[in-house]
């Protein structure tokens, strides 16, 4: 082994341990000291230098939105900010993903996550930092999510001496239908990680409030596309054709019966045909019609069952009208349901109560929307919550995926402080638990 390799070997363990972290373990904190942490993080996150930092990052990303698995510039920006903060990271995971590590490099490991991708749509909001990329827009707030995770990294760097464990910063690609989370897991993003927290900005809830629930919060989701083929011809001579338009119409109606006649009315499910393409003239019956849509349910078993019935209904109903059909489910990956871990719900409530007050923790019903955060919660305990941005003084704010979507930048401090507090307290409390367990095992001896 030559000299350079020896130097490298000696350096590798040091790379994992940030400079200011080489401190002795702090003795256990009192409940009062623990309760102060979220308040202090929020105070810090609302300081002009941190707010300006996050707003600046968010606006830079907003101007240059990138679609799933193409977040090359966003990823580069994330890495250069982590470099600047002296935070070690792994890259690439899932093409553009980045995983940063703050702390000792030792357990407990707790992850906080942001998604980085934009949507394929045109921005209709006229403002200084409008998207400069035609046909692409950050209309789901993921630009804000990245800014908040970087903001949280800054907050955590300021309290490294308390981190007797490791915070894992997960910057993932392709949440919007691409299943980036699944690829991040396949590439090792959750190695050693004990728990993961994720958030989403929402205009439905007021600024300064959070909304969440234990158990199922978002549905499992699948997509389908079908081509129904007949025989085209003159619209005035239907007897010489096999009309796929009428067949497709019957298919669409029959698909609705899967929910109204086959699903348990108390088990929420959705089948929506959102796409229909066929023909281009008033007087021509086309050869084929393409339909496509989505189906949602709160269990993977339910999703598989619906998939099977959707295929059967399309094939058989098409054949009633003498048409053939092909059905494809591979247009986008299936997402599992997102279920919040019950113990992490208690952890979240404690932190949100200490930071925002009990009246700012809003309950919510499960939503039929989906999130690829669900892939994480399939593997380890996970927790997903909404951070409010509604502010009457800003006028009506459109919800996500609208070309008129606006992000209330005042919400960024709350998200960053929640990220940092959830992770810090998780490490502290689990450290204290394991210390207590060690002590009690000594007692037994
Ligand atoms: Zn979205
Ligand atoms: Zn989103």
TrEMBL record:
Keywords: Hydrolase, Manganese, Metal-binding, Signal. One of its GO terms (molecular function) is hydrolase activity. The Mn(2+) ion enhances activity. Its cofactor is Mn(2+). Residues 225-316 form the Peptidase M20 dimerisation domain. The keyword Chloroplast does not apply. Gene3D superfamilies: 3.30.70.360, Zn peptidases. It holds the Pfam family Peptidase_M20. Residues 1-23 form the signal peptide. It comes from the Eukaryota. Mn(2+) binds at residues 140, 142, 176, 200, 401. Belongs to the peptidase M20 family. PANTHER family: IAA-AMINO ACID HYDROLASE ILR1-LIKE 1 (PTHR11014:SF119), PEPTIDASE M20 FAMILY MEMBER (PTHR11014). This is Peptidase M20 dimerisation domain-containing protein. It comes from Eucalyptus globulus (Tasmanian blue gum). The lineage of its organism: Eukaryota, Viridiplantae, Streptophyta, Embryophyta, Tracheophyta.
């Amino acid at each position: 082994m030559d000299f350079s390799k020896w130097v490298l070997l000696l350096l590798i363990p040091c790379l994992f341990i940030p400079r200011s972290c080489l401190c002795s373990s702090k003795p256990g904190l009192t409940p009062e000291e623990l309760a102060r942490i979220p308040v202090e993080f929020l105070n810090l996150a609302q300081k002009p230098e941190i707010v300006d930092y996050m707003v600046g990052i968010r606006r830079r990303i907003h101007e240059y939105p990138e679609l799933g698995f193409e977040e090359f510039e966003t990823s580069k920006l994330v890495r250069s900010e982590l470099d600047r903060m002296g935070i070690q990271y792994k890259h690439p995971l899932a093409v553009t993903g980045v995983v940063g590590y703050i702390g000792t490099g030792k357990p407990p490991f707790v992850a906080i996550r942001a998604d980085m991708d934009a949507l394929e749509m045109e921005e209709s909001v006229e403002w200084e930092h409008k998207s400069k990329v035609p046909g692409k827009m950050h209309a789901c707030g993921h630009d804000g999510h990245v800014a908040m995770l970087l903001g949280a990294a800054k907050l955590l760097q300021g309290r490294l001496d308390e981190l007797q464990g490791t915070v894992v910063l997960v910057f993932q690609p392709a949440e919007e239908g691409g299943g980036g989370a699944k690829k991040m897991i396949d590439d090792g993003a959750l190695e050693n990680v004990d728990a993961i927290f994720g958030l989403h900005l929402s205009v439905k809830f007021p600024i300064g409030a959070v909304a969440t629930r234990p158990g199922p919060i978002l549905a499992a989701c699948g997509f389908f596309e079908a081509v129904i083929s007949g025989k085209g011809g003159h619209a005035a001579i239907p007897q010489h054709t096999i009309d796929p338009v009428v067949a497709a119409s019957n298919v669409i109606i029959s698909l609705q019966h899967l929910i109204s006649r086959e699903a348990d009315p108390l088990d929420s499910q959705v089948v929506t045909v959102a796409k229909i393409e066929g023909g281009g003239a008033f007087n021509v019956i086309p050869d084929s019609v393409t339909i496509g849509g989505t189906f949602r349910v709160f269990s993977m078993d339910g999703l598989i069952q619906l998939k099977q019935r959707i295929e059967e209904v399309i094939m058989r109903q098409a054949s009633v009208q003498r048409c053939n059909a092909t059905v494809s489910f591979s247009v986008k990956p299936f997402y599992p349901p997102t279920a919040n871990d019950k113990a992490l719900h208690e952890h979240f409530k404690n932190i949100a109560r200490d930071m925002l007050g009990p009246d700012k923790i809003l309950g919510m019903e499960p939503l039929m929307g989906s999130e690829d955060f669900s892939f994480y919660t399939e593997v380890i305990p996970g927790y997903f919550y909404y951070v409010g941005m509604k502010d009457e003084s800003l006028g009506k704010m459109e919800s996500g995926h609208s070309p008129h979507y606006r992000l209330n930048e005042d919400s960024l401090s709350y998200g960053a402080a929640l990220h940092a507090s959830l992770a810090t307290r998780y490490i502290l409390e689990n450290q204290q638990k394991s210390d207590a367990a060690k002590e009690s095992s000594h007692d037994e001896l």
